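Q: Second attempt. The first request was missing the SMILES, so the protein and pyridoxal-5'-phosphate are both included now.
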Amino acid sequence: MNNKTKKYLEKANKYFMPSLLHQYYEEPILVEDVNMEYMFDAEGNQYLDCFSGILVTNAGHCNPEITEKVAEQLERIQHVSTCFLTEAMVDLGEKLAEITPGNLQKSFIVNTGSEAVDGAINLARTYTQKENIVSLRHGYHGRTTTANAVTGVGSWRFIHPDPLGIHYAVNPYCYRCPLDKEYPSCDLACTVALEDTIKHACGGRVAGILIETIQGVGGYVIPPPGYFERIQKIAQKHEALLIIDEVQTGFGRTGKMFGIEHWNVEPDIICMAKGIANGFPMGAYIAKPKIADSFTAPSISTFGGNPVSSAATIANIDYLQQQKLWENAEEVGEYGLQKLKTIGENHDCVGEIRGKGLMIAIEIIKKNGSNREPGSQEAVNLMEHLKEEGVIAGKAGAHGSVVRFAPPLTISKEQMDKAVEAMDSSLAKL
Ligand SMILES: Cc1ncc(COP(=O)(O)O)c(C=O)c1O
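A: Got both inputs this time. The predicted holo structure:
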């Protein structure tokens, strides 16, 4: 570690709470510069970024076309609050209604994913006049009190008691089925278990079922075909709203603009953030008009709909649409997935490789352990080896044993080749 990195690490330790300093790597990276698919550290190293700042920079770091639009807005209006209208905020509302699936039309604009989830839960409770929310084990929804309460990943839960009315159901994690079954002979038993939670833990009274399209922090758990269709039927039967958290899966990441478009359902509310603005603070939840119109209590968000973040979001969506980046996500994602599956066969520590678009998970298991025993330390080591090879990846999973690739959607096949080669040689070192 050079002196500059050391100095900033010491300062960070002195001035930040430890909770904020869960840095990747034995020797944390001080980021000095970024450019589209690349990050550069203070030591002069270049990295191919296969994590996109936690699935945010979908259009590439500091994408010049987006920067130009943001700079124009910076010169014009930087802040007025939601007490006043701005063109940027209103145009953004219109854009979100245009790009979201089904009849989602009215938004509430906030700053983060946690706030979007909190808001969606409040809206579901307001509209249904019921209190219970069912979410999934291994789901991650944020840091605020309610968003953290609906989070079902042990390592990211704070130790405070949950607010009332939150209930968990098992997740559709087919690689390690919580019900010890196999798809498709299971006949989606996890959805039966979810309905059981509604019937017996909630006495049939449930305001909303909150589910990520693909569990991100949970390790890219991809629900099998038919899952969401079954969940929607359960929601309708119990007059509960289907709330889809697209904070990680949104904005082209999975090969479609929104992840839920891979299933044939119509969400009642969608939560968005992260890739919505390519790095600017922005979040939103959008609902069907009848549901949205039930939220009449006065409410403001000082920074929600901030003109600079709104301009960034519009520029980002325009860029995604012009470049059809979801198509590149699908093509390069599938290309990388197949290549990773091929190299994965040569390494005993690879349990499963799965993915949709540019959300690809490498499930690491212990080499000499019992069947499918999570390789948590091995995943940490793998991350270090990848870094040495010049590739930044993410880590996830309920056991911290999943290494994930989620590069900017602008990534080329040649860059994906480099990431796969780095994975191959890093796996060989385990
Ligand atoms: C699916 C999902 N929902 C919500 C959140 C919370 O977003 P934020 O960190 O912007 O509050 C995250 C963050 O990782 C997430 O992955």
